[in-house]
User: What shape does this take?
Amino acid sequence: MPQNFGRVDSYLGQELAGLDVGPLRACYLVPDLNRGRLIEAITAASRRWGGVTEPILAVGPDGFTDERWQRIVAALEPDLFVDLGLDEHARAAAAGQLGTSLISRADFTGQPPGFPWLWCHPLVIDGPAADSPVPFPQEPDLRDLAGVGVVEDFLMWSAHGPGILQHADAHQCARSQLTRNTAAWVTAHGVMEEAVGSIFAPPVPAVIWVSEPGSFADAVGFWNARALVATARSATPVVAVLLPPDISSWPDLAELLAPRFQAQYQRPRPDAFIFSRTVPVEQLRVIARQLNLAEAALPVAQEHAAPGSLGTEPDPGTGPTVAVGFDPTPWCCYPRRYGKGTSELVQVFSGRTVIRAPSPVPFRLGLGGWVKVSLSGLRSFAAPRRPAVAQLFVDDAWFADDRLCLKRATANMYEIAVTVPEPPAVLAAALHDTGVTFTLSDKGKYAQALLDQSPALEELLRQPGALEVIMDLTRKRSGHFKSDLEVLLKDKSSDTSLVDDISALARERVPLPHRPVADLPRHGLTADSIAGILEQLTAIGLCSRGFSIDCAACQMESYIELREVTRQATCPGCGAAGAYHPDTNKPMGPVIRYRLSSLLDRASDNGAPAHILGLACLRQHAAGQPLFILPGALLLEGTKTLGEVDLLGYLAEQLIVGEVKTSPADFTEEQVRKDLTLAARIGADMYVMVAVYAITAEQEGMAASLAADQGCRLLTFSGATARPAAPS
Assistant: This one.
């Protein structure tokens, strides 16, 4: 597709685009108590950039065995879930709990020669990876591997890394963990973390985990606890170390720990947690004393543990403290996202826009690998978070939080072409995965035609009395014809003249009403206010001014627009001389009358202006955020009509379904349930209720409860919130 640079009609302006680069992160699902598969997961993570932040979860026949799995996944937000040897039942249970599919080991690793280039090795990141050779245990057991990681590609580490300290003993492995000089810690090199809603993470404790050599539960527990603190942004990196039960001959560990705790930004109290799933608490207390850590009470009970609920130590010189026997995991599960970012000014065009920016993470070119590139900042990215919507921007993109994510090869300069889609295409894509399409309803067609002709009507309808004045000048064919027909049908079921009566009645409803201000109902407004509304309607082409002519010859009353007025009143029907109709209260001369355009009259008779009022309320609520709303739509599944909604569209990331009523009494529980059924069918995020007059608190509470039951947010506009200072 040719670039459309230079086309003035397609230029949308200059915006600041963000580009973040981070690892494509996995979560490894292993059979419970299967040490071989656990080592396989540790090995894979040790060979991947960001591997130290990748969780490992054990899965049994009924699903995940760790009751905190949801908190771990929510905090670490992996991009994919890898099945490492699960049987059919465990795989189905895990996929059901996650609500997503799992990737097989073969698809994850790729086939030679693709493996291991499918992954981004931690040494692909340019710059010093460690200060001294990383240790590899002399006789590696599960505890050692979980603590320091696995080194297989010795040549890679010798050529591009700090080298390997082979046959390292347990003491060397522990010291290397404290200084972050291990294969596992090297995978964090260049990985940036941002706590959601804050520059810095909430204060999190150091993790001191104690394990017997072959403990599956301790290896998995420590791995995930370390992942939760591995990249927390702080002046001093958070300590995470896996120790054996006996450290009595390692007094130097205490000397290493104290200054690291005291230099911590927003130093938590206690500084650390010592925990084990297999080692008794009394032995943990012995280790605490050997590390010169004073035992401290928790600020809240463990069952109420949450990120940020630890206290902070105001005096940085105070001796280190520790909580003994408590799992640190729940204290560290704060929401975060990964990636190091940069930003560039971008010229945005409808259609194709190119974002060019240097990679904020330097890569060693020629080594290859895949990373996650995330885009943000463009106004058009604020769209419903649906897979098909992401693919409108870039074919292989997906949404994660407020970012558009892509899988791309390592590069030191990125050039990404993005398509800025039209709003109707975004809405269609948002409904695509539900198998639902839409078309404008009759009311929607009338409302859209009005807005196409006179966009200013949207804001005018929020004025007090505007809807009422329009209704007073509307023919109301449907309502009047029905009521009058019911009167005619009484006692005339066998009357052959009934057809003639009905035809005459229809003819009486053909002319458009034209009335002076003095004859219109007040609705709590002054005559000047009513005249002001009519003049605004006239100014936007939806109303006209004129005189009424009484014709003695044909005995018809006709309306003449001002531009057609002549000195002598002439009947436009028969051409006979007539008289301009005077004001009934002041019969000294003709009076100005107002008549709606045929489009506004027909739209009003069908209730369309109230839909436009709902759109106006949403636009004000949007406060400049991207908004696209259809003022009436039919939802379709193939050729089958599912139902009609009064408002359909999106507000930034929120997919919207709405209902509009003139009378709030029409918002019955049955009506709300019907609306919410349609909202659930398309996965709407927000249900909007709009009423011309005030909705009661009971109605709003009922609707909010029903909406919440299906995970939908309620937004209401009625009375004064729909129309400021609305008339009673």
